[in-house]
């Protein structure tokens, strides 16, 4: 398969693909180094924060980090939406997903065997402004409302609230309803035997609304009523006749303040300390032993400084990026900087490494947010007070800046490759085209310098280029000039030999004849020697005559008279009266055309030309085989073919045999040959504006001379 020089150079240009491959590999190494460095930095920052907090005496006691109980403690969420007490969940979104489930594990009291389908609920407590809000999504197979004729509040489904105020006094409240709608709280007596409310509590307001599987109870009360402890419990009554409480599920029973859980809110004191530590480009979270976020400072979103570069590559990269950004996505890692960085809530921080930190091991982990478009690295270390672990410090950062740098390296590598392909490829293609054109031009000139008959008819244009192709053209030009000079010398040598040898031969011939006439009674052997000498002189004179005829042929052709004649009839006549008579032992086969073929030329020269071809065919044909002659018209031109069966002409000599004094005869013949016959053929046919060529078949041992006129 032939591969052009242009294609080869184009394939070589594919080595430019190593640029993006190197860039991608280099970007991976950069990312690995940056991630490793960041992990060490973040872990150091987490330990520094833990050390700073551990050195504050009494801080964790004041911020309630001790004696925590996940089943009793209530965490206050910072509610982001305006709150309306309407018994609907819309205002609680998106925090409602953090609502805690209450069921079998939080069962405080039962009078009958507990069934999950009978009572369970979800609960969430939050704060907005000066009010504390709570919502209960209760699943209850049977709702029993308060009897209008009874003053007791504990004989229907109800909510029990236990509050320890800021002075440490315990207050007990109940919320129940006659029917779905607006409800208020009631202050209950400290004496548990008294089930009649002491007084209404209008500050505790709420809405009771039914659902398909139970009811929703939403309440609000001022934060001024609440101290550090708070407890809720839902009572379930399933018998409208006897109205006894079958199950009580909640954080704690309200009659004993010591059993109430802590009401835990974000620690402003710890957040102030975190702010003073100044950890830029990161978010610091403080987690208690319940794995709840208690304080935070900073944000995940990074304010990345715009990358500016006025270099040509960067300018062109910006332009190319607009068109090839879909292509870049196949090689770069996507991420987003447009994500909502919500303020941390006291949610359970469920990431790998928290559990290990609570057992005393520092770790570095990562997780994804924003549907995997943002990766967050987290360094987690234990938070200690003296010898006990009371929580963990989490330092978080996104990998956006690392990915941005990695993507920038890849994009610039791809851009550089594209630019290299555009300009370098264009240069290579131009160079290859130019080089290919010069080589093809040199090849065409070399091919056209020699005709099909082997004659040098033109030369190669000399170029001044100072490179290998220029050297090659000058070398070929010198070779052709030398070859042309030798050919011309060889063609003229025959004329010079004829001129120089004819006079001595004439003298030798005359002397031999005089010797035979003047000397009498010569011995028979001497007479034979003289006869042989005269025969050799005669042969030499015949050769010189042939040389003279070939040398003067070009001049003689200019004096010939051209006429129109029937070539098909002439060839038939020459065959019958000349060639068959001259070579009686050789068979001939003539394929005469069906129609007359007219030729404008000199009949005598055409016959001389065909005589030489026929004589050559007879000389090389195998005995018993016929010489085939055919005449036809092909594409408006006359074509004569003369073929013989016998030894073929080597391919390297097929163009040279039409030159002067070139012969390919492997055995001596009686008739001398100087290699002028086919030279005469070429000269005559070129004078008639025609061409001659020879074709050989090694398999059939067949040689065909084709003359086109």
Descriptive account of the structure:
The two termini are 37 Å apart. This protein is an alpha+beta fold and 709 residues long. Helix 1 (5-13) runs antiparallel to helix 7 (400-448), helix 11 (567-582) packs across helix 12 (603-620) and helix 12 runs antiparallel to helix 13 (677-687). Strands 1, 2, 3, 4, 5, 6, 7, 8, 9, 10, 11, 12, 13 and 14 form a 14-stranded mixed β-sheet that branches. A hairpin with a 4-residue loop joins strand 25 (691-697) and strand 26 (702-708). The model has no long low-confidence stretch (mean pLDDT 81). 37% of the residues lie in helices and 25% in strands. The radius of gyration is 58 Å and the shape is rod-shaped.
Topology:
Layout: H1 5-13, H2 18-54, H3 59-62, E1 74-75, E2 77-78, E3 100-102, E4 107-110, E5 119-128, E6 131-140, E7 158-164, E8 170-175, E9 181-188, E10 199-211, E11 214-222, E12 229-237, E13 245-250, E14 261-264, H4 268-277, E15 283-288, E16 293-298, H5 312-328, H6 354-358, E17 363-369, E18 374-385, E19 388-398, H7 400-448, H8 468-518, H9 524-551, H10 553-557, E20 563-566, H11 567-582, E21 587-591, E22 598-601, H12 603-620, E23 626-634, E24 637-645, H13 677-687, E25 691-697, E26 702-708
Parallel strand pairs: 1-14, 2-5, 21-23
Antiparallel strand pairs: 3-5, 4-13, 5-6, 6-11, 7-8, 7-12, 8-9, 9-10, 10-11, 12-13, 12-14, 15-16, 15-19, 17-18, 18-19, 20-22, 23-24, 24-26, 25-26
Helix pairs in contact: 1-7, 2-7, 5-7, 8-9, 11-12, 12-13
Distance between the termini: 37 Å
Overall, the morphology is rod-shaped
The poorly predicted ranges are none
> How much of the polypeptide forms β-strand, as a percent range?
25-35%
β-strand number:
26
Radius of gyration: 58 Å
Please describe the biggest sheet, giving its number of strands, its sense, and whether it closes into a barrel: 14 strands, mixed
């Amino acid at each position: 398969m032939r591969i052009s020089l242009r294609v080869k150079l184009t394939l070589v240009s594919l080595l430019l693909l190593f640029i993006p491959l190197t860039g991608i590999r280099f970007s991976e190494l950069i990312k690995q180094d940056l991630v490793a460095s960041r992990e060490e930095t973040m872990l150091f920052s987490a330990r520094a924060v833990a050390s700073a907090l551990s050195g504050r005496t009494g801080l964790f006691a004041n911020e309630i980090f001790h004696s925590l109980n996940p089943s009793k403690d209530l965490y206050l969420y910072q509610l982001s939406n305006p709150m309306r007490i309407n018994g609907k969940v819309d205002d609680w979104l998106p925090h409602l997903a953090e609502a805690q489930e209450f069921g079998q594990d939080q069962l405080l009291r039962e009078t009958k065997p507990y069934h999950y389908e009978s009572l369970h609920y979800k609960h969430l407590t939050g704060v907005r402004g000066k009010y504390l809000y709570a919502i209960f999504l209760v699943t209850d197979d049977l709702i029993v409302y308060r009897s209008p004729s009874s003053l007791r509040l504990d004989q229907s489904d109800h909510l029990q609230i236990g509050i320890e105020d800021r002075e440490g006094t315990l207050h007990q409240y109940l919320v129940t309803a006659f029917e779905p709608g607006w409800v208020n709280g009631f202050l209950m007596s400290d004496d548990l035997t008294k089930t009649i409310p002491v007084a209404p509590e209008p500050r505790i307001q709420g809405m009771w609304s039914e659902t398909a599987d139970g009811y929703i109870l939403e309440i609000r009360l001022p934060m001024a009523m609440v101290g550090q402890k708070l407890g809720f419990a839902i009572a379930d009554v399933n018998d409208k006749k006897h109205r006894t409480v079958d199950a009580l599920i909640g954080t704690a029973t309200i009659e004993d303040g010591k059993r109430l859980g802590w009401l835990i809110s974000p620690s402003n004191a710890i957040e102030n300390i975190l702010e003073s530590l100044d950890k830029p480009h990161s978010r610091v979270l403080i987690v208690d032993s319940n794995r709840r976020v208690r304080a935070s400072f900073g944000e995940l979103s990074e304010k990345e400084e715009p990358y500016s570069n006025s270099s040509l590559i960067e300018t062109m990269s910006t332009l190319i990026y607009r068109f090839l950004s879909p292509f870049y996505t196949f090689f770069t890692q996507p991420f987003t900087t447009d994500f909502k960085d919500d303020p941390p809530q006291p949610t359970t921080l469920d990431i790998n490494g928290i559990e290990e930190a609570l057992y005393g091991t520092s770790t570095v982990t990562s997780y994804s947010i924003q549907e995997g478009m943002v990766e967050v690295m987290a360094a987690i270390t234990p938070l200690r007070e003296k010898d006990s672990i009371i929580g963990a410090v989490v330092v978080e950062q996104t990998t956006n800046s690392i990915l941005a740098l990695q993507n920038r390296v890849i994009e610039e590598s791809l851009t550089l490759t594209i630019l290299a392909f555009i300009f370098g490829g264009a240069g290579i293609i131009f160079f290859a085209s130019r080089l290919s054109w010069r080589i093809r031009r040199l090849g065409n000139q070399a091919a056209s310098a020699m005709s099909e008959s082997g004659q040098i008819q033109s030369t190669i244009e000399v170029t001044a280029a100072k490179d290998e192709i220029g050297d090659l053209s000058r070398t070929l030009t010198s070779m052709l000039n030398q070859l042309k000079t030798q050919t011309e010398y060889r063609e003229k040598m025959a004329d010079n030999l004829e001129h120089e040898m004819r006079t001595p031969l004439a003298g030798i011939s005359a002397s031999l004849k005089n010797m035979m006439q003047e000397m009498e009674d010569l011995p028979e052997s001497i007479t034979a020697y003289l006869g042989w000498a005269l025969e050799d002189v005669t042969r030499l004179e015949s050769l010189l005559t042939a040389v003279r005829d070939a040398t003067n042929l070009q001049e003689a052709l200019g004096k010939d008279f051209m006429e129109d004649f029937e070539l098909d009839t002439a060839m038939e006549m020459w065959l019958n009266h000349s060639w068959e008579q001259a070579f009686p032992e050789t068979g001939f086969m003539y394929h005469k055309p069906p129609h007359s073929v007219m030729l404008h030329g000199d009949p005598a020269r055409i016959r001389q030309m065909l005589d030489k071809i026929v004589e050559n065919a007879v000389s090389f044909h195998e005995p018993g085989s016929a010489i085939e002659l055919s005449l036809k018209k092909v594409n408006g031109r006359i074509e004569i073919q003369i073929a013989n069966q016998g030894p073929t002409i080597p391919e390297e000599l097929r163009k040279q045999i039409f030159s002067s004094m070139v012969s390919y005869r492997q055995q001596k013949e009686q008739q001398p040959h100087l290699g002028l016959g086919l030279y005469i053929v070429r000269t005559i046919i070129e004078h008639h504006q025609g061409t001659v060529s020879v074709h050989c078949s090694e398999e059939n041992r067949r040689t065909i001379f084709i003359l086109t006129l």
